[in-house]
Amino acid sequence: MKRTWWKESVVYQIYPISFKDSNGDGVGDLRGILSKLDYLQDLGVDVVWICPIYQSPGHDNGYDISDYYKIDPAFGTMEDFDELLEGLHARGMKLMMDLVLNHTSDEHPWFLESRKSKDNPKRDYYIWRKGKNGGPPNNWESYFSGSVWEYDERTDEYYLHLYSKHQPDLNWENPAVIRELHDMVKWWLQKGVDGFRFDAIAHIAKAKGLPDADNPQQTPTVRAYELFSNLDDVHTLLQDLYDNVLYYYDIMTVGETSGLGPEEALCYVGDDRRELNMTFQFEHMFLDAASAGSGKWDVVPWKLTDLKEVISRWQTVLHGRGWNANYLCNHDQPRAVSRFGNDQEPYRIPSAKMLATFLHMLEGTPYIYQGEEIGMTNVVFDSIDDYRDVETLNYYEEQRRNGVPEADIMRAIHLKSRDNARTPMQWDAGPQAGFTTAESAWIRVNPNHERINVEEAIRNPDSIYHYYKELIRLRKEHAVIVYGAYELLLPDHPQIYAFTRKLEKSRLLVILNFSSEEPVFEWPVEAMEPEDIELLISNYAPQEHEDLLNLPLRPYEARVYLKRY
Ligand code: NOJ
């Protein structure tokens, strides 16, 4: 297997609006990030992924870009950006930008022109159609509720938006659009950025003729999915981008591609494909969805056996043929410890460390989302007025219109709102968690910042933060953590997730108790004899007089053993 820097890296994701405010306006900014570069370096991460910072009216916190070549004034200036890039490079870290190529803002000059008249030269930069039978051109539903079509009186036509109506989809069938986007990607690469996370890249091609979806047994949000996701044309377009632009730079790329399994992912990341290095897969993000056809809000408890099945499939199919991007949360998902661990005391700390062990011991590049390294949790705001996310607000409105009781809607929001991940980074126990000096931040801070914050985490040698540091350090020391082949043990065990990793003469045994109970782990002697082994890391001190052959695990205990042959 080819060894490269982006396989050996650990990525840290920053959601800039919520990371650190430097000028007291309640909104995070680039100088705020600059002030925390030493913190990131100390944690040991190699690559920083920054969610969009381009000029934007901010209907979707920057994922609605109105100028790809400018920094939004709320985040700072291009000089601040240059300083940030230099600051990262000077500390041996790299910068990955988040680029939205599927759509722009409805305030982008291309769209302002496009909507003016049917014969405007920019008309075909977007996807316009006439209505059908007095309604929209087809029955597709947007990710953010309602039709994907927005009627525009001026030309008596509809434009397509898979996300909010402020995010019109670009028309990738137009070569002029492709040229503009390629030039822009090149421009950022020439500035020296080290890679891209390509937002919603699975959707840049749509089914020819934009036909109606005809699987009404599924909920509106998922039924048209296959008509605008992972189509063959996406691959042709990405290969074109690769051959014309990406190929010439030593960068890392990751695409956001929901709705696929590992075999299909190989079409994006296969070593021979000339497309992307990694994709973000979503199968484990839907384990708590009530059914394959239901949307994200219909939540049921997830099962460990399902998690093992999904992750093991990705680990084994991609091994030697592609590369995994591993993550447990991001700016669109609930907090990992609240969802896959246990955010109630006394379990928050051990379960966050157990999940961190899981994340770092899988084959693939680990992505840490800001605040995960201190065990930040979901938030419970009682009133919808405290929520800011466009998806959450649209869902709330739609459910109210459908007559769903307020309490039921809020329960789903508490579990699944994207704002769970977007409350400000908790730097200290002071007012506004040290995020801003303003009286209030753009979104309320989680009240638990008095307990859960960076200052406390750095001070306390047993903290989740120090545990992450150690995991990151170990990854740099042992090639088996990066490149070792994965093999699942105990596929049917309801509480224990155990697996081995094997590379040349090294073998790892990873034992994770995903429960608050105390199951006994029977040592798999055939996978690794329990002699001459080294305990690389654990979230508990070993007990005295342990019987490794029948090892009682404590709540959320994690152990990683190394053996050299
Ligand atoms: C995926 C991004 O991660 C999400 O935050 C955004 O709302 C949509 N794409 C639309 O750009």
From TrEMBL:
Q: Which reaction does it catalyse?
A: Hydrolysis of (1->6)-alpha-D-glucosidic linkages in some oligosaccharides produced from starch and glycogen by alpha-amylase, and in isomaltose
Superkingdom to which the source organism belongs:
Bacteria
Q: Alphabetically list the UniProt keywords.
A: Glycosidase, Hydrolase
Q: Which family does it belong to?
A: Belongs to the glycosyl hydrolase 13 family.
CDD domains xrefs: AmyAc_SI_OligoGlu_DGase
What is the official name of this protein in its record? oligo-1,6-glucosidase
Q: What is its EC number?
A: 3.2.1.10
**SMART domains hit by this protein:** Aamy (SM00642)
InterPro entries, sorted: GH, GH13_cat_dom, Glyco_hydro_b, Malt_amylase-like_C, O16G_dom_2
Residue span(s) of domain Glycosyl hydrolase family 13 catalytic:
13-422
The keyword Hydrolase appears for this protein: yes
